[in-house]
């Protein structure tokens, strides 16, 4: 989800730098941790880059002073190597004559890097991207012209990519794409190329689509594209006029980021599991620390707290003492010797969690963090860093990050328990199947619940944290008052409110279903309307039911997307924008 | 990019209504069903249309001409939807084209999303998908795995009737989708907002609900609305419509151009009187679609019913709507009568729920 922009114009000017900055600003929504710009003039290729926001980096590095006729800009979301100034894009070759920006993952970068280093190339970053400028340099050294060298470099890399390159002596921007978007914008006296249309939409509405596996170059007045076999493409036949707004273009067909991100959950889970497998050493160390600990304090806020509560229940059932702690209530726990703290935060910047960590560190605790942002504040403050790899999440309501948290915590739990983690290799398929099989039903549930003012979400056992998350989600985005309780607790108070037509959603995790069935009957006896979301075992007598089948160890991953889709469709039915819920921020950095 | 619009189906779910009337020419809120697709595509930048029709093509042409777009019609020769696509495809010169079903009512952003996905994905083909929960077996379903696959069950995601596909040599459109997906040439998006596939009477009534919910009251200055009439919220009254003394239009409701509402009549709750239709005095119309130039005699009571173009409903006709008979896509638990165009119903008739004439 990095952002890419390239501009090439007839005349050298520092006004182009301002233009690139404005394009970069419009890429900010994709999420990033560092920013960089390269400029190319007749005599000079220059790169200025740093960790931070567009505003910070532009100011710090005087980017608006850069001059040239071709520019590359990049916003980076760290994957290979932490977010640092030197890992920020663009990356250059040994002689600073070739600059490259890249979005995607190069699978064979280690082999290529080793080979290039053996040939004497000097690397300045830990990124996979840096192999590309060195490859181009190497091919040019061997006598190829710039385009041939670029093509040869692209041919040898494996993986996914959207790549732009500028090369000293060339008045063009070279590009290639596979599995990552790249769009050309045709301007009056300049041409653009970017990872999405909104970045250049104020400057041109004429776009040319680049297909999978295609590559080519843009000059200030022309576009050249060829397919994988080297056949030139008729670019004029590809030209489209865009007349929609920037926000709708960036959602890639989906009406809202939230729904798009729910549909990205399977890949987020898959990438997260694969990230954990690649970092088995850390996971094993964390597991050992947890096994040795006296108590495990699991601190988190909001949705992350529900993931933490789920994890705590898993551990407590195995005889560990895990204490789920709402981050803002951190002062209620005094650490004792041999306690360990697990901090969970999507952004890694949640202030309440940061404050809790600070206190527990002062009390001498070891901190394990689970975040979705590499080298985020919370990660940096931790002794052990675990990462989800859900990718940036733009919708304010956590969706794919929650599912990825559950997958991460199940992985960690299995390692603690010395169980095989093989079953998690199918986790993304469970999420994907559930979405396909239940989206229509979740829409129907959501639209029914949209008519209500109050809802109870009830569950038992491991279903309780998911009931809590279901209630939170529908509160957050559909603005329907919802409360969650352990189902057995409902008769100790909450049931007093139940009357004819009162909606009660049962989260049937697939365990304790007989007990849950009794609670459902109690609600029905008060004329409640009952909805149930069940894994593997049906709840009899429910008025409406969504039943899915899944490996019982993955029930949480099956339920998570359903409760999210219900909330989403309830919000849409009520006419609200689920991406921007009122009074909420994506990252809560205030007390 | 050209659009190929299909409007040659038999309309089996709406028989006998569609024996002589092409489904896509039925009007809803003053606009033929096919024109919802064509208008949406036009607003997404499509300039040329090829429309596949049958022997009733003139009904379609008459409606599409109202939109001022460049189009040509092709009479379907081969059988089924696959045949219609293949017949239409012969008129498309471009490598890639939009395939649109002419019986879908969706906002124009639906078509923009289709174009958007095509551009952003860089894939050669795009399919639109919608979540469905009623009458699931009546839709073409897909399963999202590593590749998108056409399935017959275990899915609640349906093909949504608007696609971008490259021209190809195929005999089955669904197999072609599977093929494009297996070749990694296919992108998809989920459309989560309003979308109605008009296949059954209940779909037309549902369309009235969906469309009228979004409308705000507009009363034409050229309409003749009696001072004693009561006009509620969400009411649209078009040019030269007449609303007589003491009539109540409770809304949400649509009174089309030149339509007539007799004295003391009540039009309420998602009803539409299309162009030139007339209802006499003391009628009650609820959740019903009265097609152009249909006439309803005085003292009639119509609910959850569809009255075809030029049909004549006698005085004191009552449509019962509950229990609803068998509904294929049960969005309501009521269904009244489906009265074909140009037919007449005798004075005083009582029509049982689900009557089809």
From TrEMBL, chain A:
Listed under catalytic activity are: D-fructose 6-phosphate + L-glutamine = D-glucosamine 6-phosphate + L-glutamate
Which GO terms of type biological process are on file? fructose 6-phosphate metabolic process; protein N-linked glycosylation; UDP-N-acetylglucosamine metabolic process
Q: Which residues form the SIS domain?
A: 286-426, 445-581
**All residue ranges annotated as the Glutamine amidotransferase type-2 domain in the record:** 2-221
- Give GO MF terms, alphabetically: carbohydrate derivative binding; glutamine-fructose-6-phosphate transaminase (isomerizing) activity
> Pfam families per the record?
GATase_6 (PF13522), SIS (PF01380)
Entry superkingdom:
Archaea
The record, for PANTHER family, names: GLUCOSAMINE--FRUCTOSE-6-PHOSPHATE AMINOTRANSFERASE, ISOMERIZING, GLUTAMINE--FRUCTOSE-6-PHOSPHATE TRANSAMINASE (ISOMERIZING)
Function text: Catalyzes the first step in hexosamine metabolism, converting fructose-6P into glucosamine-6P using glutamine as a nitrogen source.
Query: This protein is called what?
Result: Glutamine--fructose-6-phosphate aminotransferase [isomerizing]
To which species is this protein native? Saccharolobus caldissimus
UniProtKB/TrEMBL annotation, chain B:
Nucleotidyl transferase domain mapped to chain residues = 2-151
Q: Does the keyword Acyltransferase apply?
A: yes
For this UniProt record, the keywords arranged alphabetically read as follows:
Acyltransferase, Multifunctional enzyme, Nucleotidyltransferase, Transferase
Q: Which InterPro entries match?
A: GlmU-like, GMPPB_C, NTP_transferase_dom, Nucleotide-diphossugar_trans, Trimer_LpxA-like_sf
- The yes or no answer to whether the keyword Zinc is present is no
Q: Pathway membership of this protein?
A: Nucleotide-sugar biosynthesis; UDP-N-acetyl-alpha-D-glucosamine biosynthesis; UDP-N-acetyl-alpha-D-glucosamine from N-acetyl-alpha-D-glucosamine 1-phosphate: step 1/1; Nucleotide-sugar biosynthesis; UDP-N-acetyl-alpha-D-glucosamine biosynthesis; N-acetyl-alpha-D-glucosamine 1-phosphate from alpha-D-glucosamine 6-phosphate (route II): step 2/2
For this protein, the record's SUPFAM superfamilies field holds: Nucleotide-diphospho-sugar transferases, Trimeric LpxA-like enzymes
Q: Which reaction does it catalyse?
A: N-acetyl-alpha-D-glucosamine 1-phosphate + UTP + H(+) = UDP-N-acetyl-alpha-D-glucosamine + diphosphate; alpha-D-glucosamine 1-phosphate + acetyl-CoA = N-acetyl-alpha-D-glucosamine 1-phosphate + CoA + H(+)
Query: What residue stretches are annotated with the Mannose-1-phosphate guanyltransferase C-terminal domain?
Result: 249-317
Any single GO molecular-function term of the entry would be: glucosamine-1-phosphate N-acetyltransferase activity
- Entry-linked PANTHER family: N-ACETYLMURAMATE ALPHA-1-PHOSPHATE URIDYLYLTRANSFERASE (PTHR43584:SF8), NUCLEOTIDYL TRANSFERASE (PTHR43584)
The name on file for this protein is Nucleotidyltransferase
